[in-house]
Amino acid sequence: MAMPMHTPAKINYADKEKFYKELKSEAEGILEKEWFVNLANLSALLNQHLPQINWVGFYLNHKEELLLSSFQGLPACTRIKMGKGVCGTSAQQKKSLLVPNVDEFPGHIVCDSNSKSELVIPIIMNDKVLGVLDIDAPVLNRFDEVDQKHLEEIVKTLIQKTEWPDSFT
């Protein structure tokens, strides 16, 4: 039987190091072994605490195409080809992409015209791209290297605590 979840108070973003320490602690506390549960809860947790964002969620690698998975925000693009847009490029290059202005990213895919900046972090296990964490913001220059570093650490924790399937079907 699942334990009821409490609603944690909003974490203060003014001190980013303290903010991310608390956010990582909360993330570790909600992560279980089931991948679909973890993606749903982590997208909700990030949406609850990250200020100035308008979309956060996951795209999963299915037959070399990224398919929309758990997310918080407006309806989104359902399929992204590897190498296309910020998400597909991040997955193909196997590296995080911090985009201060999406209008300046060649081939940016517009899912929500309100999105102005973006951070995408690939989910990689045993050199295989499982998917990406995608976070959009309605302001330019929303994300910096501090956000990227700590969100990459949260993704590493997600990878470690999760039992992943051989493929997403």
From TrEMBL:
<feature type="domain" description="GAF">
    <location>
        <begin position="54"/>
        <end position="156"/>
    </location>
</feature>
<dbReference type="InterPro" id="IPR051330">
    <property type="entry name" value="Phosphatase_reg/MetRdx"/>
</dbReference>
<dbReference type="Pfam" id="PF13185">
    <property type="entry name" value="GAF_2"/>
</dbReference>
<comment type="similarity">
    <text>Belongs to the free Met sulfoxide reductase family.</text>
</comment>
<dbReference type="InterPro" id="IPR003018">
    <property type="entry name" value="GAF"/>
</dbReference>
<dbReference type="InterPro" id="IPR029016">
    <property type="entry name" value="GAF-like_dom_sf"/>
</dbReference>
<protein>
    <submittedName>
        <fullName>GAF domain-containing protein</fullName>
    </submittedName>
</protein>
